[in-house]
Design brief:
The structure is a homodimer of 324-residue chains.
Chain A lengths: L3 H9 L9 E3 L6 E3 L6 E10 L10 H19 L2 E11 L4 H17 L3 E9 L3 E10 L15 E5 L4 H9 L7 H12 L5 H9 L6 E4 L3 H12 L2 E5 L14 H10 L5 E6 L4 H10 L4 E8 L3 E5 L20
Parallel strand pairs in A: 4-5, 9-12
Antiparallel strand pairs in A: 1-2, 3-6, 4-6, 7-10, 7-11, 8-10, 9-11
Helix pairs in contact in A: 2-3, 2-6, 4-5, 6-9
Chain lengths: 324, 324
Amino acid sequence: MLSEFDLIKRYFKRERAGRRDVALGIGDDCALLAPTPGRQIAISSDMLVEDRHFFAGADPFMLGHKALAVNLSDLAAMGARPVAFTLSLALPKADPDWLEGFSHGLFALADAHDCELIGGDTTKGPLNICITVFGETAPGHALRRAAAQPGDDIWISGTLGDARLALAGYWKEVAFDQELQAQAAPRLHMPAPRVALGLALAAAPIAHAALDISDGLVGDLGHILAASGVGATLDVDALPAGPALARQDIALRRRFTAAGGDDYELCFTAPRERRAEVAAAAELAATPVTRVGTIDAAPGLRLVDAHGAPLDLGLKGWDHFSVP
Amino acid sequence: MLSEFDLIKRYFKRERAGRRDVALGIGDDCALLAPTPGRQIAISSDMLVEDRHFFAGADPFMLGHKALAVNLSDLAAMGARPVAFTLSLALPKADPDWLEGFSHGLFALADAHDCELIGGDTTKGPLNICITVFGETAPGHALRRAAAQPGDDIWISGTLGDARLALAGYWKEVAFDQELQAQAAPRLHMPAPRVALGLALAAAPIAHAALDISDGLVGDLGHILAASGVGATLDVDALPAGPALARQDIALRRRFTAAGGDDYELCFTAPRERRAEVAAAAELAATPVTRVGTIDAAPGLRLVDAHGAPLDLGLKGWDHFSVP
């Protein structure tokens, strides 16, 4: 039987040299970060619970990836550069196969972003993964939800809705074939945090407001509108559907792009004078972006179709306490 | 039914002015810390699981206190000054009474240490509380586990064993009266993190190595010995028993002071030439300290009684995966 200390040593403590700004990593009462002088530390924490954020028996490699990805996505939404993270883990048992897969998925993504595991906790309990991530950003450069301005364009990175489509397949909400499910599923299990795009947008800074879309675009965009005291017009038919969703009918496309959930794309606003710079940032980050609407002075979110006619999709955002 | 956003707004987002070094608190994708120039950030994360770290149905006020206290205790053990924390919370349901009690217990302790809640996550799931805490410390002043030197005195803050005695009462391991249980129970439910003492010991710095005793002194001291490549002699009869435990027989006193668990006292080492400064730091922090042994060059931990004779208590530290 693996002890708690053996488990940390075997799966989570690594021998290779760490980042220079990590003064002390795993193994003491605290880790120590030595922040770059003059930089601010961006901090976010996400908790993933079995049967709520992922299926019981989920593949541990993909779960390790996703647990860190959703946190890196928050750094991306602020335009912060990843530095380090802590991992707290409640496990029903210390299963070597699970730990091997989970830690490999976790570290593959961490290494791709030079983000170091510096501490955390492990305990016995119902499966629960809580990661807290640290990034750095220059003062005044962070992309805040409250910074949208009337007249701003609204932009979306990548594509929307395939994660939700994959869920619909698992839940048998829609009938479709295995090949379509195989196309959509990676978007649900292995989201790619848009870190490079967030950094490019914050560097100048080109963008005004930003957030990452985790609970569905309409609900999440609502947070930008509320924080900024503005409204918006969203062209639902301009929303970029994922390749699997693009093969579905227009009603499903509209619903799952506008309010799918688990997209982990960035929604950001930028002045219309900066369209060329947005395009250049997207090019630099190798991340496609699509213009999907406009920030208005008038409050409220207006959904319109390709012809500018009002659409009522009867949508709402995801809320963990209002669903069964 | 409370939504996730209402829940955060009602119980965890506060209107009062925050710390100056918290550039952005709750409500965006990330919080932003503006670290004091030249300081390092000490970071620790602890996860508390129902039926493992606390009883099902535990008083929510005391639970809010304890969840933060065990994290502040890690900052104390590094000699770091509390700054801020994140709270991630999985709840079976959004129960207003529970949330009210929990948030009050949490903020009472947070305010006492000027430690600001800057973000986190809430979700539905089996009750799980994960706090990540941030403190600051001057480079080179953090109290590291690896810094013990042969010849150092070993010191303990406060008293040991009453938390374990309270557990023994709940578990019916020992028979004792309600009055004794009432005396011991606060040490289990409302530990006082030794932040002031940690700061005083790190300021000069007076102490060499330190940690907080959460899993029993013998096991935890073992971490200092392993990290420092040294051994120790521990005078078990010098260990300061809590007031309830002090009324028990010597066998129980020895067992629960040496390997109780949940003590959240500091164990630290300091050169014998600094005894007067240790006493002054204890006075400044209004925290009693007791000298209980010596760090040796020879590896291994030797337990001795008041006469210096070897003691074998057959003890081991707490391990979350080796117990049922």
